[in-house]
Design a protein that fits this description.
By secondary structure, this protein is an alpha/beta fold. It is 30% helix and 22% strand. The protein starts with a helix and ends in a 6-residue tail after the last strand.
Length: 425
C-alpha cells in the first residue's frame, strides 16, 4: 500500500521519524493533506547538517505549520494496534498514529558490488577522479560512491542529485576516451529545502565537520535584508559563514529566509569552488536594484565582516559563550531603550551606540577593569561600539549576529535569558 493511499483512505495522524530534508518534506506534505503530524529527530535539532541557530528558525516554521517537533529524542518502539499504532519515544512520550514515515538517512545498497570483488569503503564504492572502480571497465557515480569532501578532505558518500548527474557526463567522456575528458571535481555539498514559507540552504562544511577535521575557523553571523529595506516586501536572510583562520578561504555557508536564500548560497558555493578568500567577497559586482538586492549585498557584507576580523578591526564573541561573558565581562547593550526593554540580558548595561562617546565614564565605572562584551540586534551597531571602545583603550568584543543570533541559538530558552522590562505609564 502506498503512502498516498493510506492518506486517501482516511489516515488522520502521521509520525515522521527523521527530520532531514526528505523527512521535513514528507511532514509538510502530510500536514497539507490535513493530518496531525509529529516529527521525531534523534539529533539535537531538525535538519542536522544545518547549524543550531538556523535550525531553530526552521523549527519555528514547522510549529507555525502545526507540526509538533520532538528533537534530541529517540523513537524506541512502535506499538502496533488494531485501529492505530503508537510511537514510543525515549522520554516516555507516546504518539498515537495511523502511519509512520521512516526517513533516517541513506545507506548504499552495494552488496552486489562487494560480492563481485569491487573495492568499497564503509559500504560505498571506491572510485577515482574519473569514476573508475577497481574493476576494469566498470565506472560508478552517485549516492553509492565515495567522494572526497572539497573542504575537509574526508571520504564520504554525497547523496545529492546535482553531483551525480554532472559526474555522469564526465564519466561518459572518459568511457569514450576523449582527450579533453575532465576529472570529477570534489563535491562541496550544496543543498536546499523549502519548509513552509521559508527556505534553508547550505554549501561547504558545517561546524561539526570542520571540528571533526581539526580545522581552525571563524564564524560570521549576519541578518541582512534580501533587498533594499525601503522597497516593499523586504525580509531578513539569516546567514552563517565559516572562514579559515589559516588562509581566509570560505569553508562553508548557510542561510535561512523567505526570499533570496538560493541566490546568496549559489554565489557562496561558486566562491568556495573558486577558492576565493572571504574578504574578496566585498568586491563582487553583483546585480543591484531595490527590488532585487542592496547596494551592499548580503554577500558583500560577508566579505566586509571577514576583512574586519582578519585585519583585527573586529573581535567577535558568540552566543554559546554567554555564561562565560556574564561571569568575566561587562555586557554592554547598545540598542535603544525601547529595544532593551523588549528583552535584554539581566545585569547588562544599556547605552545606545549614539550616546556611547559621551558616556564612556559610565562604562569604565561599571566594567571595573573587566572586558566589554558589546551587543545590539544584529551586530552592526555593536561593531561601531567596538571601534569606539577599542579606540578609547577598552578590551572589547562584539556579539556575532547580535540578539537575533542569541535568540536563535538558545531557542526556547531565550525567553528566560532575555528578560523584559516592565514599562509603566
Amino acid at each position: 500500500m502506498t503512502l498516498k493511499k493510506w492518506v486517501d483512505d482516511g489516515a488522520t495522524r502521521g509520525v515522521v521519524l527523521g527530520a532531514g530534508f526528505i523527512g521535513l518534506e514528507a511532514a509538510e506534505a502530510l500536514r497539507h493533506r490535513g493530518l496531525e503530524v509529529d516529527v521525531v529527530e534523534l539529533a539535537p535539532h531538525v535538519l542536522p547538517p544545518l547549524e543550531r541557530e538556523l535550525a531553530s528558525v526552521v523549527t519555528t516554521q514547522l510549529r507555525n505549520l502545526g507540526i509538533r517537533v520532538h528533537d534530541g529524542v529517540a523513537a524506541e518502539s512502535v506499538d502496533v494496534g488494531d485501529e492505530s499504532d503508537v510511537v514510543v519515544l525515549s522520554d516516555g512520550t507516546r504518539i498515537p498514529t495511523d502511519l509512520v514515515v521512516l526517513s533516517v538517512g541513506v545507506r548504499p545498497d552495494t552488496a552486489f558490488v562487494e560480492a563481485a570483488g569491487i573495492e568499497t569503503a564503509r559500504g560505498a564504492i571506491v572510485v577515482d577522479d574519473r569514476g573508475r572502480t577497481s574493476a576494469e571497465g566498470v565506472w560508478a557515480a552517485g549516492d553509492a560512491v565515495t567522494s572526497t569532501d572539497a573542504v575537509t578532505g574526508v571520504q564520504r558518500p554525497v547523496p545529492l542529485a546535482g553531483p551525480a548527474n554532472r559526474a555522469g557526463r564526465l564519466i561518459a567522456d572518459d568511457i569514450f576516451g576523449m582527450a579533453q575528458a575532465r576529472p570529477i571535481p570534489h563535491p562541496i555539498g550544496t543543498a536546499i529545502v523549502r519548509v513552509g514559507e521559508i527556505t534553508a540552504a547550505m554549501t561547504g562544511a558545517n561546524r561539526a565537520s570542520l571540528d571533526a577535521a581539526g580545522m581552525d575557523y571563524t564564524t560570521i553571523h549576519l541578518h541582512p535584508m534580501q533587498h533594499a529595506g525601503y522597497f516593499p516586501g523586504a525580509s531578513t536572510v539569516h546567514m552563517i559563514v565559516h572562514v579559515s583562520q589559516r588562509d581566509g578561504r570560505i569553508l562553508g555557508a548557510q542561510a535561512v529566509g523567505y526570499e533570496g536564500v538560493d541566490k546568496r548560497i549559489d554565489v557562496l558555493a561558486t566562491a568556495i569552488r573558486a577558492g576565493l578568500p572571504a574578504a574578496d567577497l566585498m568586491d563582487l559586482d553583483l546585480a543591484y536594484s531595490p527590488p532585487y538586492g542592496q547596494a551592499k549585498d548580503a554577500v558583500n557584507l560577508v566579505g566586509m565582516i571577514a576583512e574586519n576580523v582578519e585585519n583585527g578591526r573586529l573581535k567577535l564573541w558568540y552566543a554559546d559563550e554567554l555564561d562565560r561573558m556574564r561571569e568575566s565581562a561587562l555586557i554592554l547593550d547598545v540598542r535603544t531603550p525601547r529595544e532593551y526593554n523588549s528583552g535584554h540580558i539581566e545585569g547588562s548595561l544599556n547605552i545606545p551606540h549614539t550616546e556611547l562617546r559621551d558616556r564612556l565614564d559610565e562604562v569604565r565605572e561599571a566594567a571595573q577593569g573587566r572586558p566589554i562584551a558589546a551587543l545590539c540586534a544584529a551586530g552592526v551597531r555593536s561593531n561601531i561600539a567596538y571601534r569606539i571602545l577599542v579606540g578609547n583603550g577598552f578590551d572589547a568584543a562584539s556579539l556575532s549576529g547580535g540578539t537575533q543570533t542569541l535568540r536563535q541559538w538558545w531557542g526556547d530558552q531565550a525567553a528566560s535569558i532575555l528578560v523584559r522590562e516592565e514599562v509603566h505609564a
